[in-house]
Amino acid sequence: MRWNSEKYDQLEHACRNGLRVVVQRRGTEYIVIADKVGAGPRGEALHARLPMTGEMMEFLLKDIEWFQVLRNDG
To answer: How far apart are CA 64 and CA 25, in angstroms?
Structure first.
């Protein structure tokens, strides 16, 4: 996936507002609650948690095939 400022903005908006995001990585889709985007030793990553368990996950941006921020109907 090509990252541009619009995609970064979408992801950062999801993190600021604790929105659900569908992320596809290595052919597997995850629905997670966005927490933060940050740089680490392995590169920039989305840090998010699984809604059912609260488990934190890290998705390296370079490994994300696509993502979609879900609408907040709350």
So the answer is: 5
